[in-house]
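Quick log. Single chain, no ligands specified.
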Amino acid sequence: MKSKPHKTKDGDVRSVGFSFLREGIYVHKGAGKGMGGLKGSSWLDKYGVRKSTNPESLGKLATGNRKAKPWFDALDKDLPELGDIVAETYAARAIDATKLFNKQ
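-> predicted structure:
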C-alpha cells in the first residue's frame, strides 16, 4: 500500500490518497486462475497479444479453494476514528486562533 498526503500551502494535510497493488482485489473477491467473475475481461499480455477470460471460469468467483477474503472493507471501520482525530485537531486550532484575536 502506498499513501500520499496532500498538503495546503501552510503545510496542513488536507487529504490523503491511497493506492494498492492490483492483485489485492483478487484476494478480496476470491478471484484467480480458473475462478472468474460473471463478465470476464480482456487484456494485453507482455507481448501485446490480446487475451481474455476463459469462458469455462466464468461465474466461479469465490468458489472452490478461492474463497473471498474481504480485507479492503476493514479500512472502513477505522475512518470514524480518523475523522474524530481530525475534528479534535482543527477544533483545538480554531480555539487557539480565537485567543490570539481576543488578547487586549
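The chain has one domain: 2-76.
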